[in-house]
Amino acid sequence: xxxxxxxxxxxxxxxxxxxxxxxxxxxxxxxxxxxxxxxxxxxxxxxxxxxxxxxxxxxxxxxxxxxxxxxxxxxxxxxxxxxxxxxxxxxxxxxxxxxxxxxxxxxxxxxxxxxxxxxxxxxxxxxxxxxxxxxxxxxxxxxxxxxxxxxxxxxxxxxxxxxxxxxxxxxxxxxxxxxxxxxxxxxxxxxxxxxxxxxxxxxxxxxxxxxxxxxxxxxxxxxxxxxxxxxxxxxxxxxxxxxxxxxxxxxxxxxxxxxxxxxxxxxxxxxxxxxxxxxxxxxxxxxxxxxxxxxxxxxxxxxxxxxxxxxxxxxxxxxxxxxxxxxxxxxxxxxxxxxxxxxxxxxxxxxxxxxxxxxxxxxxxxxxxxxxxxxxxxxxxxxxxxxxxxxxxxxxxxxxxxxxxxxxxx
Amino acid sequence: xxxxxxxxxxxxxxxxxxxxxxxxxxxxxxxxxxxxxxxxxxxxxxxxxxxxxxxxxxxxxxxxxxxxxxxxxxxxxxxxxxxxxxxxxxxxxxxxxxxxxxxxxxxxxxxxxxxxxxxxxxxxxxxxxxxxxxxxxxxxxxxxxxxxxxxxxxxxxxxxxxxxxxxxxxxxxxxxxxxxxxxxxxxxxxxxxxxxxxxxxxxxxxxxxxxxxxxxxxxxxxxxxxxxxxxxxxxxxxxxxxxxxxxxxxxxxxxxxxxxxxxxxxxxxxxxxxxxxxxxxxxxxxxxxxxxxxxxxxxxxxxxxxxxxxxxxxxxxxxxxxxxxxxxxxxxxxxxxxxxxxxxxxxxxxxxxxxxxxxxxxxxxxxxxxxxxxxxxxxxxxxxxxxxxxxxxxxxxxxxxxxxxxxxxx
Lengths: 410, 410
Hints:
- The structure is a homodimer.
- Chain A has 2 domains: 12-47 and 309-407, Aspartate Aminotransferase, domain 1, CATH 3.90.1150; 53-307, 3-Layer(aba) Sandwich (Aspartate Aminotransferase, domain 2), CATH 3.40.640.10.
- Chain A has 11 helices and 15 strands.
- Chain A has helices spanning 16-30, 50-63, 79-90, 108-114, 133-142, 195-208, 279-290, 296-303, 308-334, 358-369, 395-407; strands at 37-38, 102-105, 125-129, 158-161, 179-183, 211-215, 241-246, 259-262, 268-270, 276-278, 339-341, 347-351, 371-372, 374-375, 386-390.
- In chain A, strand 11 and strand 12 form a beta hairpin.
- At the A-B interface, helix 2, helix 4, helix 5, strand 9 and helix 7 of A face helix 2, helix 4, helix 5, strand 9 and helix 7 of B.
């Protein structure tokens, strides 16, 4: 019989969000009248902005005409979008990215999950803890770890605890690592790396010949002008970092699907025979062999994000969400709950009151305030005792959620 | 330094279509006035049909409203589309597929490339030769092969030559294999498996505990009512086969991107400890971990293919392409060139005249008739001496191409 990939069996059965779904469903069965407000999953709630809808619709119409119809596009993305990314996301911040260093895709989840394929299975992976589960799970599936221990940690992974004690900004590890995942603005902690912090990571990577996999899916939420939006704003990062970006959170594309990845030609890995090999060539081979490009109308929709109207409209939505974040932080603070993040990121990370476990707090928040959030322990062992709330909801729901939280005795 | 996945280095450098592109560009530089007609790459040319455009546009408009906006959908696909697939693609042909056996994706290239991940690297892979390159390349990248030999064949792969001598329908191998890729209607040969042939494959797979990876991306081109559209029309296939389907060729979605994969819960693989494991559960884990669903408006566009108008309009386009195919077959036949396929598939596979190699015929066709096709040898060693033409072009271009071919002395 065909053998399965046994590494999949190392994955823990219950993924975070299905377990949340189960508990919410059970509660709603008991209390069918309770109006549950969801601040759990990091999914946007505002509609696509008018400039995006207009471009999207125009491209759909084009697809219905003989002259405008487009079949297969370049797997790497249409040049009209690539040129806009180069100009608005990079050149405007002093970073020069070549067209063939950019790969348009249907999502950062896919890209940050697939990137590990171009690396050997013998590399040591370092992750912050808590972490976006996709980085870990895809390495487990590829066989870069042993089994998970009782503490939830997989053998072979270098975990970098991110806690209140280190400001959710762990220092580079002393232990050896070849691949490091960084996410800034961070999901789930909402922490944002300063330029000085990124400089330390880049210099660590250069010293250790490691590759940094930098997830900047939330960069659109940065308002502090001193904070870097791209790791390439740090000198030398082009030789050691791959960067992931997405329209999901910056332009409400979670249901529309468009993202991109930057693989500079200067980033290298080592072949078995000792030769240095360009990771750009490997990713290009991966992307063109296993992917067939993003829907043409979706790429036109993404391009509209860079127009004057598109920029203005998407920024307004981000401002709206960030006002939600401010209200949540203030409301929780007034209720005596310590919060972190939520200033340059749409996530508020909180310390559970009274030493509650993450899941106990989940249950109390659900039963006491009919509010759903995400238990910090679901993102890794060091997330225990923390909890994530997202700023993605209507103003009315956010205000109502805060009012309910204030009424609970924690 | 981070180690690369060395398996990528086993891949042959020049992929087929870039080499075609280079030769065409060189010719056009020499002969800038030549009007080159492309019957090479298998990309559709007719616009999206009105019913699809209408549904696509309506869903885009929905995304711009507070009530209609959709964020993340289920990674497996929206139920409105899954239900239509179950009814129209399967129940209508007497096949019962459960909703959780269906996985909507952004392309069959992706799915047929990614499916191998859920299997161990120690499985033996069998492929017809010639073959769609993605099946082979993704297994090379995963390390299921040795190096390629001088004959272009990778060590460890079981090749099943498909030639005129066996009617492009190789019999199941005597050599052991665990995973078998079948494509019917076939790309590149245009051959379509009969029910009796599929029965032989299913019974072989059951006997050998092998899994069949069945690519039916071109099933929409079948007009002969005796031919099966799905491998599940064969009894017992549910226990041994995974099927790939796509809207790319049936509804002109090559630039729009939607497809689906069926993984019946009864198909199993073997874990290292001997336990039988459901492949459906493994693919579900893969799909939900590394993919984030297809764009909502695109899924609505795909759903419109099943409406009365959508069906009628897409069938008309297929009829149009198949009349192109008939004209190409007739024209080549009149020119004394032996053709195959092109009756229930949009590809015409031809034997190169005068014993020309596939690339020599490519050059003569380009220089003599200014027509571009695809050298059979690009699909595998047994494709040498054959050539693929596609029916995807305007009637005028097809007629002009045939007229020019007729004027060449082969």
